[in-house]
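hey
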């Protein structure tokens, strides 16, 4: 039998001795090559093997005979090629060795199967495909070539191990170790998630040799992962009995004891292991974890340092790169091991935060290399616990959470990048779900009577099964935790998939389900869950607030650190699901999330009615005084939730109420309770410390029914901050006990607040420290007030539980998400090279930090002016200097002053969003502060770091995408408050129109332009329905005309043509536009005024609705607070005056100049802002108020504009008045479109012989 070979390219055959057959010659070369390879000369061995194989080739057919000899030759060739890192060629050799095996399937080439399996297992990247059924692999013909395809390699390896095992079991004296083989096979099975198969293989190895330490050690760890802890302990002890001085066995036994919660025993074993092998970095690291968890952070970091040194010594000895990776992992563990469970003080919180952030920044600044890659991500979290505890510091965590995730995107992408196969092409990503059920998975490590399980079970169980197929992914389930909650959830799901603690195996099982939506019920409390979120496992992903903070893991950062990977292959979390009830108004909600924020209207949790309180318990049952002589204040939260600021309020409560007893549950670790008590005493004076010590009590931890009985006995519950109760508040309210919460200090989701809002109960919400103390003491000491609040809560508490509306909102969200484009995410951005100016020169100030810089372009065309202001410098003198330099009139000076003040004074505002730009080898941190003008910020950053104008535009667009709240009214107002030259007045409340009562006066001023006046008045009469019997008189009370210096004939003509108008003819000595305006303000009796000069023509189609009713809806909107609404778009002068409609519409600014708003009645309009540098906001050099046609609220004008009196001596009185209105806090707006056209070409001042200096320019 002959066979054609794969992987050709053999060496030229040297001359064969005439007395040798081809088989003998090939055999001699094989022996020589094996000897050379054994001595480390693999490069010399390979040509001999190639020659030996070539000697067996039939010259006529180019085939080689099938035989054991040729099979063995190719197997050795594969081993040598693999040692030379020729992975593809080695794979071809092993394929040929298997194909050339002369025996029938499965054959006798177990060595080739074993070697090919090891190659596929260890030298081909992990696959993104789900595993086929194991039986299918084993039943199919093993004698086929393996393709070096990462999508199938690991499963082919599994099949090869199975084939080799079948041969080995029939081979009397195999020349490889069956025990080693079984261990390799087991590791491969574990890799693909076949944990039970892996365990069976190890048990078989131990049956063959009960003293085989590797098998027992591997089995003990595998049984630990399978949560069979007693069996894992038994295997560890058996192995240690055989080899008591084996350090690795001692280490593994410590891990088993740790899983059994025997911390003391675990520490003892790790200490023994380090004594046996001082360079066993795993045990040093484990000792560091334990010290960190116990609060000894300095001791933990010392251990991590020792572990790093040990790993580096092992690398120096062995050149094994895995030790470099271990050292990188340990450095990260040390960097994050700075966050205590209990802080010493407020200053301690600040210091720890800075150290945590700077540690991550330092790691992220390192270049990617073999010495910085982190391979084993799960063990890399150390005692830093995924940054779990930083949420309790009271800061916005998005920057810290993203930094942490970015470390893994950069240094562990080779381990974390994974795409479900059905998403590889990108086609499924774009297709809406039609004509089938939406397949949604819920993932969690806490599907039992735990907060995450309790909060999500209602929705999971009640999703409409006619629309949704539900898969429950249970992460690392433990049998003892499979309680009634688990049973109920598992019973309701269409499918339950239990996931192993191995990230690689778990994600394959999730990917196999081909989900439309995957919901993580929490991210940040379980390591495997956290790292699964980096993979692209479903069409869309979402995070529920089981851990109420952003994951920090998004596609934008993944794409940034992996620019060569298709974006649709990159994972991350697409949505964070929250509620409008939960998001505080202290900053725009989206700025707190790396994911796209999806806000529901309701509670987002279909919480089931809590357990009834356990009966028969009293305060005495918990060791507390059970009498009416004490007032019980309970704070039933874990102690690490208690912020040092909260201590001050506790002490104030104890001072205010001599009968107060404040009760906490004991901590999970005794040292945490002791640390908290020490802090509370340190916060009290010596005279107070004794009563603080006597009146703060700790009670044992309790089950759920006991907890509900416990809180029912309290007079009041104290909700801590910055993280308050969520699940616990839902349970507390079921007992009726009032909860006092601090809205301003609750820094994450306002969960208790949202529950109060849902019930319609307000009494427990405090907005200041004083109010928090007052409310708590009032409820606890006033039994009548306590009873009243209990009654109100119990009457409305049903609204919190089992709401169909919550399920419907989840269904709407899932349907929306899977049928819309995937959100982009908010992460690091790489600056495209074309956006950088190669000739950039630095603009930093010598000797001081730069606060702000802007480049101004004067109208004179004399070149640009760079203005730079240092931190601590007053920007006003800079504005004055620039104004003098360019001879700017006052309004332009005020514009410059507004821009510079906002740019400099922004440093006083709170940072609400942070991200980074990659600028060559430099990382630029961009801090967005509340109220920032994003155009101004983009300009400053661009000038500072050398962006082109196009690059500044790109950055502005990126900022707008990341901070959607930048257009909100509150955001703009906070920016305007930075202009210290303003003295805004509180606005007048919006008016209310009375039925059947007119409300508007229309007023004209005219001056010697009869022809224009007649056109203006006629168009107004026609389009608005004025004149006798016109339809406008229900709104319009009077039309007033103030004439300035027209001839008597012209005046008579005006009266004759429009007898229904009221005319005021001024005397010559009273001429002047400002005087006319003051006269109108004095004469008008209505609150609302529409003003026209005599040269504005109302265009066809602009009727009463467009000219009056829609602007009035804006003025009447209480939330808008607008003083004036102009009827024309104000984006350019050609739009404002309708002088060139083609230019107006075609200039690109039309409809963009201003902030898009919508009135309460649904009318769309644009709100003007003075001094804004946002893209598209033209005409911002004008303060706002204008004499162009519009409707004005005179009550607000008088409030904001210095009494509403125009300066009759000012040459530019309109400009002066407009600046005055802006400084007084006036808000102006304009409507969409063009409704009136300016007709005049000659100024009325010229016609009135009162030309101003600039009228003829």
């Amino acid at each position: 039998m002959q066979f054609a070979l794969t992987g050709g390219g053999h060496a030229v055959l040297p001359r064969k001795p005439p007395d040798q057959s081809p088989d003998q010659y090939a055999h001699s070369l094989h022996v020589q090559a094996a000897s050379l390879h054994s001595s480390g000369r693999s490069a010399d061995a390979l040509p001999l093997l190639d020659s030996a194989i070539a000697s067996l080739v039939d010259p006529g057919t180019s085939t080689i005979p099938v035989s054991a000899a040729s099979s063995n030759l190719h197997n050795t060739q594969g081993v040598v090629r693999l040692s030379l890192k020729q992975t593809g060629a080695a794979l071809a050799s092993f394929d040929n060795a298997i194909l050339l095996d002369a025996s029938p399937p499965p054959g006798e080439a177990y060595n080739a199967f074993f070697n090919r399996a090891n190659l596929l297992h260890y030298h081909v990247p992990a696959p993104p495909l789900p595993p086929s059924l194991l039986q299918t692999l084993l039943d199919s013909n093993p004698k086929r070539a393996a393709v070096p395809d990462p999508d199938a390699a690991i499963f082919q390896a599994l099949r090869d191990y199975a084939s080799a095992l079948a041969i080995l079991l029939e081979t009397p004296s195999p020349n490889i170790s069956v025990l080693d083989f079984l261990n390799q096979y087991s590791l491969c099975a574990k890799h693909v998630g076949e944990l039970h198969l892996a365990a069976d293989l190890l048990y078989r190895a131990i049956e063959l040799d009960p003293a085989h330490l590797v098998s027992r050690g591997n089995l003990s760890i595998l049984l630990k992962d399978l949560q069979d802890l007693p069996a894992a302990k038994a295997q560890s002890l058996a192995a240690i009995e055989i080899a008591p001085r084996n350090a690795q066995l001692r280490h593994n036994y410590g891990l088993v004891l740790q899983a059994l919660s025997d911390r003391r025993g675990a520490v003892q074993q790790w200490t023994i292991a380090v004594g046996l092998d001082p360079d066993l970095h795993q045990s040093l690291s484990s000792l560091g974890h334990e010290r960190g968890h116990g609060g000894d952070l300095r001791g933990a970091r010392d251990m991590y340092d020792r572990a790093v040194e040990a790993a580096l010594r092992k690398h120096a000895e062995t050149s094994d790169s895995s030790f470099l990776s271990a050292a990188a992992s340990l450095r990260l563990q040390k960097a994050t091991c700075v966050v205590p469970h209990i802080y010493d003080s407020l200053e301690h919180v600040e210091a720890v935060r800075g150290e945590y952030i700077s540690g991550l920044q330092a790691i992220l600044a390192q270049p990617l290399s073999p010495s910085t890659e982190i391979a084993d991500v799960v063990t890399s979290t150390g005692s830093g616990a995924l940054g779990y505890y930083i949420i309790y510091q009271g800061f916005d965590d998005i920057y810290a959470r993203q930094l942490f995730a970015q470390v893994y995107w950069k240094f562990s992408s080779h381990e974390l990048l994974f795409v479900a196969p059905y998403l590889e092409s990108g086609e499924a990503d774009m297709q809406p779900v039609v004509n089938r059920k939406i397949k949604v998975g819920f993932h969690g490590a806490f599907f039992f009577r735990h907060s995450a399980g309790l909060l999500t079970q209602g929705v999971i169980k009640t999703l409409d099964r006619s629309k949704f197929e539900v898969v429950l992914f249970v992460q690392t389930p433990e049998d003892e935790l499979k309680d009634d909650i688990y049973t109920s959830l598992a019973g309701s799901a269409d499918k339950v998939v239990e996931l192993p603690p191995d990230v690689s195996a778990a994600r394959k099982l999730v990917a196999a389900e081909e989900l439309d939506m995957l919901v993580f019920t929490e991210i940040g409390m379980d390591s495997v869950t956290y790292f699964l979120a980096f993979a692209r496992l479903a069409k869309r992903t979402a995070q529920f607030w089981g851990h109420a903070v952003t994951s920090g893991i998004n596609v934008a950062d993944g794409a940034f650190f992996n620019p060569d990977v298709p974006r649709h292959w990159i994972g991350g979390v697409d949505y964070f699901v929250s509620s409008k009830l939960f998001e505080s108004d202290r900053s725009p909600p989206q700025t707190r999330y790396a994911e796209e924020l999806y806000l529901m209207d309701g509670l987002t949790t279909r919480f089931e009615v809590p357990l009834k309180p356990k009966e028969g318990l009293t305060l005495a049952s918990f060791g507390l005084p059970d009498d009416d002589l004490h007032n019980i204040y309970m704070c039933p939260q874990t102690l690490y939730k208690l912020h040092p600021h909260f201590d001050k309020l506790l002490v104030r409560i104890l001072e205010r109420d001599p009968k107060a007893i404040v009760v906490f549950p004991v901590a999970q670790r005794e040292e945490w309770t002791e640390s908290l008590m020490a802090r509370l005493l340190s916060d009290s004076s010596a005279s107070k410390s004794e009563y603080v010590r006597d009146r703060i009590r700790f009670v044992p931890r309790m089950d759920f029914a006991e907890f509900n009985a416990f809180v029912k006995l309290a007079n009041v519950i104290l909700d801590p901050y910055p993280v308050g109760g969520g699940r616990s508040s839902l349970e507390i309210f079921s007992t009726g006990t009032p909860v006092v919460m601090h809205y301003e200090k609750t820094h994450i989701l306002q969960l208790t607040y949202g529950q109060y809002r849902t019930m319609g109960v307000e009494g427990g919400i405090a907005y200041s420290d004083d109010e928090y103390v007052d409310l708590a003491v009032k409820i606890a000491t006033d039994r009548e007030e306590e009873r009243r609040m209990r009654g109100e809560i119990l009457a409305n508490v049903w609204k919190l539980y089992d709401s169909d509306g919550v399920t419907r909102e989840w269904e709407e969200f899932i349907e929306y998400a899977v049928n819309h484009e995937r959100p982009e995410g908010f992460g690091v951005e790489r600056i495209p090279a074309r956006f950088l100016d190669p000739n950039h020169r630095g603009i930093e100030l010598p000797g001081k930090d730069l606060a702000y810089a802007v480049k101004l372009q004067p109208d004179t065309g004399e070149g640009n002016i760079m203005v730079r202001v240092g931190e601590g410098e007053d920007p006003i003198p800079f504005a004055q200097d620039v104004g003098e330099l360019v001879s700017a009139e006052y309004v332009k000076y005020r514009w410059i002053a507004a821009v510079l003040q906002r740019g400099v004074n922004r440093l006083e505002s709170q940072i609400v969003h942070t991200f980074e730009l990659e600028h060559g080898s430099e990382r630029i941190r961009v801090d967005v502060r509340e109220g920032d003008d994003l155009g101004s910020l983009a300009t400053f950053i661009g000038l500072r770091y050398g962006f082109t104008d196009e690059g500044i535009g790109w950055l502005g667009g990126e900022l707008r995408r990341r901070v959607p709240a930048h257009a909100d009214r509150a955001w703009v107002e906070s920016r305007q408050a930075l202009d210290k030259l303003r003295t805004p007045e509180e606005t007048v409340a919006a008016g209310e129109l009375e039925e059947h009562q007119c409300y508007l006066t229309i007023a004209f001023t005219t001056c010697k332009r009869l022809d224009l006046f007649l056109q203006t008045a006629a168009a107004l009469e026609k389009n608005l329905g004025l004149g006798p019997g016109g339809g406008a008189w229900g709104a319009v009370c009077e039309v007033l005309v103030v004439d300035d210096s027209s001839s008597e004939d012209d005046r008579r003509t005006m009266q004759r043509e429009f007898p229904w108008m009221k005319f005021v003819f001024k005397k010559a000595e009273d001429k002047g536009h400002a005087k006319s305006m003051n006269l109108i303000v004095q004469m008008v009796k209505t609150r609302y005024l529409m003003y026209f000069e005599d040269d504005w023509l109302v265009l066809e189609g602009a009727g009463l609705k467009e000219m009056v009713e829609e602007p009035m809806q804006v003025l009447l909107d209480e939330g808008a607070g607008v003083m004036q609404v102009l009827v024309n778009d104000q984006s350019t002068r050609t739009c404002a005056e309708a002088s060139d409609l083609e230019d107006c519409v075609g200039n690109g600014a039309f409809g963009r100049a201003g902030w898009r708003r919508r009135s309460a009645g649904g009318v769309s309009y644009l709100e003007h802002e003075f001094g804004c540098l946002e893209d598209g906001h033209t005409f911002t050099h004008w303060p706002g108020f204008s004499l162009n046609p519009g409707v004005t609220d005179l009550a607000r004008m008088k409030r904001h504009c210095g009494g509403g009196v125009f300066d009759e001596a000012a040459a530019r009185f309109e400009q002066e008045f407009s600046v005055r209105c802006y400084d007084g806090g006036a808000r102006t707006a304009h409507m969409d479109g063009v409704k009136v056209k300016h007709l005049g070409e000659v100024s009325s001042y010229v016609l009135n012989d009162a030309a101003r200096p600039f009228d003829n320019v």
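The chain is about 45% helix and 10% strand. Residues 1-13, 125-151, 1243-1248, 1250-1257 have pLDDT under 50 and may be disordered.
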